[in-house]
Amino acid sequence: MTETASGPARGSRSKGSKASKGLRIERIHTTPGVHPYDEVVWERRDVVMTNWRDGSVNFEQHGVEFPDFWSVNAVNIVTSKYFRGAVGSPDREYSLKQLIDRVVKTYREAGEEHGYFASPADAEIFEHELAHALLHQIFSFNSPVWFNVGTQQPQQVSACFILSVDDSMESILDWYKEEGMIFKGGSGAGLNLSRIRSSKELLSSGGNASGPVSFMRGADASAGTIKSGGATRRAAKMVVLDVDHPDVEAFIETKVKEEEKVRALRDAGFDMDLGGDDITSVQYQNANNSVRVNDEFMKAVDAGGKFGLRARMTGEVIEEVDAKGLFRKMAEAAWACADPGIQYDDTINHWHTSPESGRISASNPCSEYMHLDNSSCNLASLNLMKFLRDDDRGNQSFDAERFGKVVELVITAMDISICFADFPTRKIGETTRAFRQLGIGYANLGALLMATGHAYDSDGGRALAGAITSLMTGTSYKRSAELAAVVGPYEGYARNADAHNRVMKQHADANATAQRMDDLDTPVWAAATEAWQDVVRVGAKNGFRNAQASVLAPTGTIGLMMDCDTTGVEPDLALVKYKKLVGGGSMQIVNNTVPKALKRLGYQQEQIEAIVAHIAEHGNVIDAPGLRPQHYEVFDCAMGERSISPMGHVRMMAAAQPFLSGAISKTVNMPESASVEEIEEIYFQGWKLGLKALAIYRDNCKVGQPLSTKKWEEKGKGAAEEEPAAAKVVEYRPVRKRLPKGRPGITTSFTVGGAEGYMTANSYPDDGLGEVFLKMSKQGSTLAGMMDAFSIAVSVGLQYGVPLETYVAKFTNMRFEPAGMTDDPDVRMAQSIVDYIFRRLALDFLPFETRSALGIHSAEERQRHLETGSYEPSDDEMDIESLAQSAPRRTEGSRAPAAQPSQAAEAPAPKEAHSSTELVEMQLGLNADAPLCFSCGTKMRRAGSCYLCEGCGSTSGCS
User: How far apart are CA 129 and CA 114, in angstroms?
Assistant: First the structure.
């Protein structure tokens, strides 16, 4: 039985069982007498978000107020997702100050009301420190906090829920209802169906039972109808079945059979893309499925023995199966359609702090939250890159002391939220208040490892990740024990005290035996060791305020809010990213972490610049000038020429798992060529390495994933049209877009090294540079003739869609005579006429960010750099550049000419990138198995077990 607190599901407030003077709150970042808002520069921006498929405006709000260092993406996502009030009404929030105040002041008031603070001064420090950390993107609460806290609607703060269902029709119908209410609120839920009797057992009336798989069909239909958060994304849900359930084989095969149906319907001409008109006829697509295995089963697999399937009502074995054969069926199903995942029951419950109140039988949809049935967890994640320090000598360190202080601040705030939180059902509210489960975690691990010169799949990388995770969880439980002295331990603690303290000792022992590797992780391990010593000592005296403290969540939307390069525990997606620009438009940039990594590895500035230039051109580090091959692994990413091996992902999960209360939201990506045997090995090693849960995804294993290059208006093609097309090799060629008869132009006279000339640059009326004419003063000379021919070649290339920045990158710094002084104040010296021409064109036609990345600045910008240390353009220049963001663009119908026919035949890369995923696709000539965002049409990228849209912040999961 689950131990619960009494009281209504909403608005219940308990001040705890112990009286104390309250917490003393320490200043970390703030200054007495100065509000955090007064320490940053605020600016006004316009947010206009469009659907790239048809150009329609999805969201628009003008004059929003944010700090000047917040990126375009972060501003767009916070404005569109988290600001409350009807758009266009006076009640609509318009400033980040309003949003942070709405949340932080609610937390402070609840903390004062429930006796958390020693004095009003401590409450004010708490408010200021929390506001500073949010303002500077040091951490973020999960989305429901931003949606609900401080508003008139129910104050739901949790993103993750676990339900329960028993073997009765009443309980099954309650499951449908409760799950639907959670979906409606924009969150996700998971549950274990193993208490429902199998189809091989009899009902009390004498008939055969339907079995859990049949009831899954009804729940799946309900989830597909309700969706999540209204209609913005598919519902996030997890369905778990124990491996000893007699219907486990039918459960394993549910999605495999449906995937076969998808292929047959697609081949018959039906629209089976995700979100297509006909995909709704396919069942079981709204849930992640996982099989819960135990040690008995895994040992039988290892030994090649038999395993008994047990009746739900009596527990007797009604069928024996070959364990290895059943395990094989799981791997075959995962190979075919990515489901089911696997959860390791004995490992999960070995780390359970409250076993006397019930076993852990299920997880939330993303598999990071695992605790009692009918419970919830609110999440918050820290941005690890904010704690990386560089000293005056260029040495790096992780600021373990400040990290620990921020963890204490955040975990305090998270616990306060349970005091005022509302919950979707009475049972969930009761259990959550009785056990106060929290889920602190982090984001940007992949970026941190690369910036510090660690390969993701390396002993050093795993040591640093383990140390940070251990310090985070140890500090959280230490603060939980301190809170127990102030406001009392969680209500279920007394019954579970021995088990809770045993688990704390397990964490401390794992910390003590972990391998130390280098100067970065060793001090963090030392801080973690001290924290765990305090946990064991203080916890034995005071008890603990929280049954659970930490998880590693996907950090999808909030990762974008914090401007994180990587989500959760994931590695970097690729070395070249897609970046939105102020005023509209976008550009591709090499990750900012790459230069930091090269500096850490000992490369000089000139070498770093050459390597970064190589990455910008090729998208990878292979054969980069001066880069030692032994350092290639540091720059391995989730996708690309050098992608991280599947076991590399598993080993990273194993490094963090012993130091987490919950589990890890992560999918192990495998290449299309992966075999069933490799999946078996992944699942087996996950058990041996002590993971709690694991899921794999083999590239191209699912049909119902749309390709971003497919025209959305093409619907319902017949089989007769499809079959011949599949056999053809389609070669895409660029299409020339000629300029109109009348076009705007700029004529520039110039002198380079004594050679005089004229350049006329003509533009499309609305789409950037289209042609260049070059005339040298000495007609009939070889130079004049070659420049004529060269300008024609460049003009034709521009009209076929070659970006101007490509020409600029190729031809600037080219050295030949005539060269020397020029009469242009912005380009005082040129190494050749070609060097001058493309510097001038860059200044006239390229946006500031693109020019800056290429090292091309005007005289005024260079002067400003001398005065302020920054090349940032003025407001007037930004207004001018916002008009030029579209120049130059690839013309309609054009494609990168480097695409090979064999690649295009399989799946042509998108014409124009709208996200980092599409940018990687263009570099590789491949397609990522990711859905298009339901809100804005941008191709999403994986974040943990979910998908994240970089365009608008929508996710396919529960965070």
Answer: 19
Q: How many residues does the chain have?
A: 959
pTM, to two decimals: 0.77
Query: What CA dihedral angle connects 141, 145, 151 and 156, to 10 degrees?
Result: -160
At 368, list the tokens.
Answer: 């990071």
What sign has the CA pseudo-torsion 876, 879, 882, 887?
A: negative
Residue 86's CB is within 10 A of a number of other CB atoms, namely 8
Contact 527, 401 (CB under 8 A): yes
The Cα–Cα gap between 709 and 698 comes to 21
Q: What is the CA radius of gyration of the chain?
A: 30
Q: Name the β-bridge partners of 668.
A: 696
Query: Residue 364 is encoded by which pair of tokens?
Result: 């939330």
Catalytic residues: 364, 366, 368
For the segment 278-337, what is each residue's pLDDT rounded down to a tens digit? 666 677 677 889 999 999 999 999 999 999 999 998 999 999 999 999 999 999 999 999
Distance of alpha carbon 273 from alpha carbon 266, whole angstroms: 9
Which is more confidently placed, 584 or 604? 604
Distance CA 929, CA 134 (A): 33
44 CB burial (10 A radius; 0-12, 13-18, 19+): exposed
User: Nearest CA to 678 among 697, 665, 703, 653?
Assistant: 697
CA distances from 430 to 373, 492, 903 (A): 11, 11, 56
* Cβ atoms < 10 Å from Cβ of 832: 20
Q: In terms of DSSP H, where are the helices of 869-954?
A: 875-883, 901-906, 916-924
What does the alpha-carbon distance between residue 880 and residue 813 come to, in Å, rounded to a whole number?
A: 27
Instruction: Lowest mean pLDDT of 459-463, 695-699, 848-852, name the range.
Output: 848-852
The pair of three-digit structure tokens given for residue 394, joined into one six-digit string: 């260029």
* pLDDT digits 0-9 by tens, 102-132: 999 999 999 999 999 999 999 999 999 999 9
DSSP for 135-147, please give it: HTTSEEE-HHHHH
CA distances from 587 to 623, 909, 943 (A): 24, 17, 22
Question: Residue 925 half-sphere exposure, CB side, CA atoms within 13 Å?
Answer: 15
| Burial (Cβ within 10 Å: 0-12, 13-18, ≥19) of residue 247 | buried
Q: Which domains does the chain have, with CATH numbers?
A: 1-21+377-574+642-662 (3.20.70.20), 30-137 (no CATH), 160-356 (3.20.70.20), 719-733+895-948 (no CATH), 745-883 (no CATH)
Half-sphere exposure of 686 (CA within 13 A, CB side): 30
The residue ranges of DSSP E strands in 26-164, in sequence order, are 42-50, 57-67, 139-141, 160-162
Q: Where are the beta strands (DSSP E) in 384-421?
A: 388-390, 396-398
Kindly compute the dihedral angle of the four CA atoms of residues 757, 762, 767, 768, in this order, to the nearest 10 degrees.
10
- Residue 625 has φ and ψ, to the nearest 5°, of -60, 125
Contact 409, 130 (CB under 8 A): yes
